[in-house]
Specification:
Layout: H1 2-17, E1 22-23, E2 27-28, E3 32-34, E4 41-43, E5 48-52, E6 55-59, H2 62-74
Antiparallel strand pairs: 1-2, 3-4, 5-6
Length: 75
């Protein structure tokens, strides 16, 4: 029971101490990205990703992604 309580703290500490890559067995560190439409921050692994102008753009929802595409078409 103690291990189940302490493990998240240990894992979090390991992730902070690691290099910018990944902690073995834990996967890559995730970071927040900003949705250009609604300005909301979302975790990159859960964001909707599109390409625009040769770069990746991340959105919090399909609605924001669609609004962005509509703005790009009309520009």
């Amino acid at each position: 029971m103690l291990i189940l309580t302490v493990w998240p703290l240990v894992r979090s500490a390991l992730a902070r101490m690691s290099s910018p890559g990944a902690v073995e067995g834990l996967g890559p560190r995730d970071e927040l990205v900003k949705d250009p439409v609604c300005q909301t921050y979302v975790v990159r692994s859960r964001a909707i990703r599109n390409e625009a102008g040769g770069r990746s753009v991340y959105f919090c929802s399909t609605r924001c992604a669609e609004q962005f595409r509509e703005r790009e078409r009309s520009a």
